[in-house]
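Comment thread on ticket #2218

A.B. wrote:
> Attaching the input chain for the structure job we discussed in standup.
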Amino acid sequence: MESASSIRHRPRLFAPTAPHAVHRLDVGGGHLLHVEESGHPDGLPVLVVHGGPGGGASPFMRRFFDPRRWRVILFDQRGCGRSTPHAAVEHNTTADLIADMERIRTHLGIERWMLFGGSWGATLSLLYAEAHPERVTRLILRGIFLMTAAELDWFYRGGAARFFPEAWEEFLAPIGKGGIGDPIAAYHALLFGEDPRRADEAALAWTLWESRLAALEAPAQGAVPLDFARAFARIENHYFIHRGFIEEGQILRDLHRITHIPAHVVQGRYDMICPPRTAWALVKDWPAATLEMVPAGHALTEPAIAAALVEAVARVALAGG
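C.D. wrote:
> Ran it. Output below, let me know if you need it in another format.
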């Protein structure tokens, strides 16, 4: 018999839908963005901001939105997913991505929209909102990551390794003992080095470390697609070695620009990638924000997280945006 808890956290996702419009948007620097629209063309506009950096959008992300009520915009950030050139880090910074989001908004003729993002998608949503608060109606965020040195140290300097020692050993294998002091820099040397075989090995190991820690009840690990790993590892490492191209503590420093904007944050209590204290720090001085802790890890696909996000989106639709 199912427990009351498992029934409560069973997400009522909407049926899969196909996009009704696909755009190839030239944003300069040689980059072409894949942008797609689904749902109702005149519905409430929402921009879905994927994680990573370098993760790419997924059709699964459309299923949180009633296609009769929402105009859902997904895009692949520079260098990943179906955007080109694949795995490119040139002309690929946080400022570029924020400008891309604005370019998408104006291209589609949208005055204001809601932002929906998790992990790095939450980071980028917050930075966009702080840069363009007049364009954001509200935010629904998951797995808060603020791109601080402490967060990167937690995940890449041994914090999370205390809970996953066997996965950590495999993560360290490509860089050896000499890279333990600064794994991000050691991986950077491999990912952008001259040996393509070692670069591919590093890309797979980098990607597998994160994917193994993403879910509270992780499914059996299959092979990580090499094309995905190349983009994910190169772009994520590129952003992390440059500390996200933002100043330390910048998001909380500039939070006053958006504290009037309603926000709902869903945070996994047992998130090993983005621990809950970061979400707590974000909302505690944000009067218009609410924090919902759920019994889950980090991944968007976890039942408790997905269920909370579906309910949050439904409440916004019921209120008319």
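A.B. wrote:
> Thanks. Noting for the ticket: Residues 196-212 form the longest helix (17 residues).
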